[in-house]
Design brief:
about 120 residues, alpha+beta, HIT family, subunit A, 5 strands, about 20% helix, Histidine_triad_HIT, catalytic activity
């Protein structure tokens, strides 16, 4: 796999608003946010798509979700809820071919007919 935009962020070749980093992953704010809170969590290991995940990648992929839950709690939106999603290939909306978990929060993200049933603070 050739270097992607995300590989360059990991290597600090291009800037990003990094909010978390550990030995397996890096999280940074999305440059085109779709919600008041929108960040990406990426593995440091380059994996192009969901289709390219192999059995030895289970730990790192699960780790991305653990980081999402940790950051949701720390940032204060875990109880209200959030969306964590990965896109795969063109029809799935993937534009950067380095696996990444989108975390979106800060507003109701449910299907519109159910918006009135959501509890309000």
């Amino acid at each position: 796999m050739s270097d992607t935009l995300f590989t360059k962020i990991i290597n600090r070749e291009i800037p990003a608003d990094i909010i978390y980093e550990d030995e397996l992953s890096l999280a940074f704010k999305d440059i085109n946010p779709q919600a008041p809170v929108h960040f990406l969590i990426i593995p440091k290991k380059p994996i192009a798509t969901i289709n390219d995940i192999e059995s030895q990648d289970r730990e790192v992929v699960g780790h991305l979700y653990l980081v999402a839950a940790k950051l949701a709690a720390e940032m204060g939106f875990a109880e209200d809820g959030y969306r964590a999603v990965m896109n795969c290939n063109p029809h799935g909306g993937q534009t950067v071919y380095h696996l990444h978990l989108h975390v979106l929060a800060g507003k109701p993200l449910g299907w519109p007919p159910y918006q009135d049933k959501l509890k309000t603070a």
